[in-house]
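HOLO CASE FILE
Compound: flavin-adenine dinucleotide
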Amino acid sequence: MPEIKAQPEQGLHKVLDKGFVRLIEFMGGDQRAVDSARVSFGSVSKGEAQDKKLVEYLLANGHLSPFEHSVFQFHIKCPIFVARQWMRHRIASYNEISARYTEVQDEFYIPEAFRAQDRINRQGSVRNGALEQEKMLAIYDRAVKASYEAYRQLLEAGAAREMARMVLPVSQYTQFHWTINARSLLNFISLRADEHAQYEIRRYADAIRDVFMEKMPWTWEAYAKLHEKKNH
Ligand SMILES: Cc1cc2nc3c(=O)[nH]c(=O)nc-3n(C[C@H](O)[C@H](O)[C@H](O)COP(=O)(O)OP(=O)(O)OC[C@H]3O[C@@H](n4cnc5c(N)ncnc54)[C@H](O)[C@@H]3O)c2cc1C
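Model generated. C-alpha coordinates follow.
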Protein backbone atom coordinates (compact mmCIF):
# COMPACT_ATOMS: atom_id res chain seq x y z
CA MET A 1 0.00 0.00 0.00
CA PRO A 2 1.58 3.35 -1.01
CA GLU A 3 2.24 5.92 1.67
CA ILE A 4 -0.41 8.63 1.99
CA LYS A 5 1.38 11.82 0.95
CA ALA A 6 0.41 15.30 2.08
CA GLN A 7 -0.90 17.25 -0.91
CA PRO A 8 0.07 20.91 -0.54
CA GLU A 9 -3.02 22.17 -2.28
CA GLN A 10 -5.82 24.56 -1.45
CA GLY A 11 -7.72 23.81 1.70
CA LEU A 12 -4.72 22.60 3.69
CA HIS A 13 -4.75 23.90 7.27
CA LYS A 14 -1.42 23.36 9.02
CA VAL A 15 -1.77 22.22 12.63
CA LEU A 16 0.93 21.74 15.32
CA ASP A 17 4.51 21.36 14.04
CA LYS A 18 3.99 18.82 11.26
CA GLY A 19 0.27 18.09 11.06
CA PHE A 20 -2.59 19.23 8.91
CA VAL A 21 -6.30 19.09 8.21
CA ARG A 22 -7.30 19.05 4.55
CA LEU A 23 -10.85 18.98 3.26
CA ILE A 24 -10.97 16.43 0.43
CA GLU A 25 -14.63 16.77 -0.42
CA PHE A 26 -17.82 18.31 0.86
CA MET A 27 -21.40 17.40 -0.02
CA GLY A 28 -24.51 19.33 1.01
CA GLY A 29 -24.66 22.59 2.95
CA ASP A 30 -27.16 24.73 4.86
CA GLN A 31 -29.69 24.54 2.06
CA ARG A 32 -29.47 20.74 2.02
CA ALA A 33 -30.42 20.65 5.71
CA VAL A 34 -33.37 22.96 5.01
CA ASP A 35 -34.51 20.89 2.01
CA SER A 36 -34.17 17.63 3.95
CA ALA A 37 -36.28 19.06 6.78
CA ARG A 38 -38.92 20.44 4.44
CA VAL A 39 -39.27 17.16 2.53
CA SER A 40 -41.08 15.86 5.64
CA PHE A 41 -44.01 18.15 4.92
CA GLY A 42 -43.69 18.18 1.12
CA SER A 43 -42.54 21.79 0.96
CA VAL A 44 -39.52 23.60 -0.51
CA SER A 45 -37.34 26.65 0.32
CA LYS A 46 -39.22 29.73 1.51
CA GLY A 47 -36.41 32.21 0.97
CA GLU A 48 -33.23 32.90 2.90
CA ALA A 49 -34.73 34.55 5.99
CA GLN A 50 -37.26 31.73 6.58
CA ASP A 51 -34.70 29.04 5.78
CA LYS A 52 -32.23 30.48 8.30
CA LYS A 53 -34.97 30.51 10.93
CA LEU A 54 -35.71 26.88 10.16
CA VAL A 55 -32.04 25.97 10.72
CA GLU A 56 -32.17 27.73 14.11
CA TYR A 57 -35.39 25.92 14.99
CA LEU A 58 -34.01 22.51 14.06
CA LEU A 59 -30.87 22.96 16.17
CA ALA A 60 -32.71 24.48 19.14
CA ASN A 61 -35.23 21.65 19.22
CA GLY A 62 -32.87 18.74 18.64
CA HIS A 63 -34.23 17.89 15.19
CA LEU A 64 -30.76 17.00 14.00
CA SER A 65 -31.28 14.35 11.31
CA PRO A 66 -31.53 16.94 8.45
CA PHE A 67 -27.86 17.80 9.17
CA GLU A 68 -26.84 14.21 8.47
CA HIS A 69 -27.24 14.81 4.72
CA SER A 70 -24.20 17.08 4.61
CA VAL A 71 -20.92 15.21 4.62
CA PHE A 72 -17.27 16.24 5.00
CA GLN A 73 -14.31 14.11 3.99
CA PHE A 74 -10.97 15.11 5.49
CA HIS A 75 -7.36 14.00 5.26
CA ILE A 76 -5.79 14.37 8.70
CA LYS A 77 -2.18 14.16 9.84
CA CYS A 78 -1.76 14.19 13.62
CA PRO A 79 0.24 12.52 16.41
CA ILE A 80 -0.98 9.05 17.44
CA PHE A 81 -2.06 10.25 20.91
CA VAL A 82 -4.36 12.80 19.20
CA ALA A 83 -5.67 10.15 16.78
CA ARG A 84 -6.48 7.92 19.73
CA GLN A 85 -8.73 10.59 21.25
CA TRP A 86 -10.14 11.39 17.80
CA MET A 87 -11.18 7.82 17.01
CA ARG A 88 -13.41 7.69 20.07
CA HIS A 89 -15.85 9.60 17.84
CA ARG A 90 -17.61 6.56 16.44
CA ILE A 91 -20.19 8.19 14.20
CA ALA A 92 -17.73 8.67 11.34
CA SER A 93 -15.66 6.56 8.92
CA TYR A 94 -11.91 6.11 9.24
CA ASN A 95 -9.10 4.68 7.10
CA GLU A 96 -5.60 5.01 8.55
CA ILE A 97 -2.11 4.49 7.16
CA SER A 98 -0.72 1.10 8.19
CA ALA A 99 2.66 0.73 9.86
CA ARG A 100 2.45 -2.95 8.89
CA TYR A 101 2.50 -2.07 5.18
CA THR A 102 4.76 0.99 5.23
CA GLU A 103 7.91 1.98 7.07
CA VAL A 104 7.27 4.68 9.62
CA GLN A 105 8.86 8.04 8.84
CA ASP A 106 11.04 9.97 11.29
CA GLU A 107 8.18 12.33 12.17
CA PHE A 108 7.36 13.05 15.78
CA TYR A 109 5.43 15.84 17.44
CA ILE A 110 7.79 18.23 19.18
CA PRO A 111 5.79 20.52 21.51
CA GLU A 112 6.66 24.20 21.61
CA ALA A 113 6.67 24.05 25.40
CA PHE A 114 5.86 21.61 28.18
CA ARG A 115 2.85 22.29 30.36
CA ALA A 116 2.59 21.33 34.03
CA GLN A 117 -0.04 19.07 35.61
CA ASP A 118 -3.25 20.97 36.44
CA ARG A 119 -4.06 20.49 40.13
CA ILE A 120 -7.77 21.29 39.79
CA ASN A 121 -8.68 19.51 36.55
CA ARG A 122 -6.90 16.20 37.06
CA GLN A 123 -6.98 15.46 33.31
CA GLY A 124 -5.67 18.90 32.34
CA SER A 125 -2.47 20.90 32.08
CA VAL A 126 -1.42 24.49 32.74
CA ARG A 127 1.33 26.82 31.55
CA ASN A 128 3.99 27.18 34.21
CA GLY A 129 6.88 29.61 33.87
CA ALA A 130 8.92 27.69 36.44
CA LEU A 131 9.37 24.64 34.21
CA GLU A 132 12.87 24.11 32.81
CA GLN A 133 11.82 24.00 29.19
CA GLU A 134 15.24 23.46 27.63
CA LYS A 135 16.02 20.57 29.92
CA MET A 136 12.61 18.95 29.36
CA LEU A 137 12.76 19.31 25.60
CA ALA A 138 16.25 17.77 25.57
CA ILE A 139 15.00 14.73 27.56
CA TYR A 140 12.06 14.38 25.17
CA ASP A 141 14.17 14.76 22.05
CA ARG A 142 16.65 12.14 23.26
CA ALA A 143 13.89 9.61 23.98
CA VAL A 144 12.19 10.11 20.61
CA LYS A 145 15.47 9.82 18.68
CA ALA A 146 16.46 6.70 20.63
CA SER A 147 13.14 5.00 19.89
CA TYR A 148 13.38 5.77 16.17
CA GLU A 149 16.96 4.51 16.13
CA ALA A 150 15.80 1.28 17.83
CA TYR A 151 13.04 0.97 15.19
CA ARG A 152 15.59 1.24 12.35
CA GLN A 153 17.92 -1.23 14.03
CA LEU A 154 15.13 -3.79 14.51
CA LEU A 155 14.18 -3.48 10.82
CA GLU A 156 17.81 -3.89 9.78
CA ALA A 157 18.10 -6.96 12.03
CA GLY A 158 15.18 -8.51 10.14
CA ALA A 159 12.17 -7.71 12.36
CA ALA A 160 8.80 -7.32 10.63
CA ARG A 161 7.47 -3.76 10.38
CA GLU A 162 4.47 -4.75 12.52
CA MET A 163 6.85 -5.68 15.36
CA ALA A 164 9.58 -3.05 14.97
CA ARG A 165 6.94 -0.31 15.35
CA MET A 166 6.23 -1.49 18.88
CA VAL A 167 9.12 0.66 20.17
CA LEU A 168 7.71 3.89 18.71
CA PRO A 169 6.09 6.51 20.97
CA VAL A 170 2.58 7.98 20.70
CA SER A 171 4.08 11.29 19.53
CA GLN A 172 4.66 9.59 16.14
CA TYR A 173 2.59 11.21 13.37
CA THR A 174 -0.10 9.17 11.65
CA GLN A 175 -2.49 9.95 8.79
CA PHE A 176 -6.08 9.01 8.09
CA HIS A 177 -9.09 9.81 5.99
CA TRP A 178 -12.15 10.83 7.98
CA THR A 179 -15.68 11.07 6.64
CA ILE A 180 -18.31 12.53 8.92
CA ASN A 181 -21.73 14.11 8.61
CA ALA A 182 -22.46 17.64 9.83
CA ARG A 183 -24.46 16.48 12.85
CA SER A 184 -21.65 14.31 14.16
CA LEU A 185 -19.07 16.95 13.26
CA LEU A 186 -20.87 19.51 15.43
CA ASN A 187 -20.63 17.03 18.30
CA PHE A 188 -16.89 16.60 17.64
CA ILE A 189 -16.28 20.35 17.54
CA SER A 190 -18.33 20.97 20.64
CA LEU A 191 -16.32 18.37 22.63
CA ARG A 192 -12.86 18.86 21.15
CA ALA A 193 -12.68 22.64 20.62
CA ASP A 194 -13.75 23.01 24.24
CA GLU A 195 -11.18 24.12 26.82
CA HIS A 196 -11.52 20.79 28.66
CA ALA A 197 -10.05 18.95 25.67
CA GLN A 198 -6.28 18.52 25.39
CA TYR A 199 -4.49 21.49 23.79
CA GLU A 200 -3.21 19.44 20.84
CA ILE A 201 -6.58 18.02 19.67
CA ARG A 202 -8.12 21.46 20.29
CA ARG A 203 -5.85 22.93 17.62
CA TYR A 204 -7.25 20.37 15.13
CA ALA A 205 -10.84 21.01 16.22
CA ASP A 206 -10.27 24.75 15.70
CA ALA A 207 -9.10 24.13 12.11
CA ILE A 208 -12.09 21.87 11.47
CA ARG A 209 -14.44 24.46 12.96
CA ASP A 210 -13.08 26.99 10.43
CA VAL A 211 -13.91 24.60 7.58
CA PHE A 212 -17.39 24.03 9.02
CA MET A 213 -18.02 27.79 9.32
CA GLU A 214 -17.04 28.28 5.70
CA LYS A 215 -19.14 25.43 4.30
CA MET A 216 -22.24 25.75 6.53
CA PRO A 217 -22.33 29.37 7.77
CA TRP A 218 -26.05 29.45 8.74
CA THR A 219 -25.76 26.25 10.72
CA TRP A 220 -22.62 27.46 12.45
CA GLU A 221 -24.16 30.82 13.30
CA ALA A 222 -27.28 29.19 14.76
CA TYR A 223 -25.20 26.62 16.67
CA ALA A 224 -22.87 29.30 18.11
CA LYS A 225 -25.84 31.45 19.18
CA LEU A 226 -27.45 28.49 20.91
CA HIS A 227 -24.25 27.66 22.78
CA GLU A 228 -23.75 31.26 23.84
CA LYS A 229 -27.26 31.20 25.35
CA LYS A 230 -26.60 27.86 27.12
CA ASN A 231 -23.37 29.20 28.62
CA HIS A 232 -25.02 32.31 30.08
C1 LIG B 1 -12.50 16.37 27.50
C2 LIG B 1 -12.74 14.91 27.25
C3 LIG B 1 -12.24 13.97 28.12
C4 LIG B 1 -12.45 12.61 27.88
N1 LIG B 1 -11.93 11.69 28.75
C5 LIG B 1 -12.12 10.37 28.54
C6 LIG B 1 -11.57 9.38 29.43
O1 LIG B 1 -10.92 9.71 30.41
N2 LIG B 1 -11.78 8.08 29.14
C7 LIG B 1 -12.52 7.67 28.07
O2 LIG B 1 -12.70 6.47 27.88
N3 LIG B 1 -13.04 8.57 27.21
C8 LIG B 1 -12.86 9.89 27.40
N4 LIG B 1 -13.38 10.81 26.52
C9 LIG B 1 -14.09 10.32 25.31
C10 LIG B 1 -15.62 10.48 25.45
O3 LIG B 1 -16.12 9.69 26.50
C11 LIG B 1 -16.32 10.09 24.13
O4 LIG B 1 -16.06 8.74 23.85
C12 LIG B 1 -15.83 10.90 22.95
O5 LIG B 1 -15.79 12.26 23.27
C13 LIG B 1 -16.77 10.68 21.76
O6 LIG B 1 -17.99 11.35 22.02
P1 LIG B 1 -19.38 10.77 21.52
O7 LIG B 1 -19.63 9.41 22.09
O8 LIG B 1 -20.42 11.82 21.78
O9 LIG B 1 -19.14 10.69 19.92
P2 LIG B 1 -19.56 9.54 18.90
O10 LIG B 1 -18.94 8.26 19.26
O11 LIG B 1 -19.29 10.10 17.54
O12 LIG B 1 -21.10 9.40 19.12
C14 LIG B 1 -21.99 10.44 18.77
C15 LIG B 1 -23.29 10.24 19.51
O13 LIG B 1 -23.91 9.03 19.06
C16 LIG B 1 -24.54 8.37 20.16
N5 LIG B 1 -23.88 7.08 20.37
C17 LIG B 1 -22.74 6.64 19.78
N6 LIG B 1 -22.47 5.38 20.18
C18 LIG B 1 -23.44 5.05 21.05
C19 LIG B 1 -23.69 3.90 21.82
N7 LIG B 1 -22.89 2.83 21.82
N8 LIG B 1 -24.79 3.87 22.59
C20 LIG B 1 -25.64 4.94 22.64
N9 LIG B 1 -25.44 6.08 21.95
C21 LIG B 1 -24.36 6.12 21.16
C22 LIG B 1 -24.38 9.30 21.36
O14 LIG B 1 -25.48 10.16 21.42
C23 LIG B 1 -23.13 10.09 21.02
O15 LIG B 1 -23.06 11.36 21.67
C24 LIG B 1 -13.18 12.17 26.73
C25 LIG B 1 -13.68 13.13 25.86
C26 LIG B 1 -13.47 14.49 26.09
C27 LIG B 1 -14.02 15.50 25.12
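CASE NOTES: The CA atoms of residues 152 and 164 lie 8 Å apart. The helical segments are 30-38, 48-60, 80-86, 133-156, 161-164, 182-192, 199-215, 217-230.
CLOSED: yes
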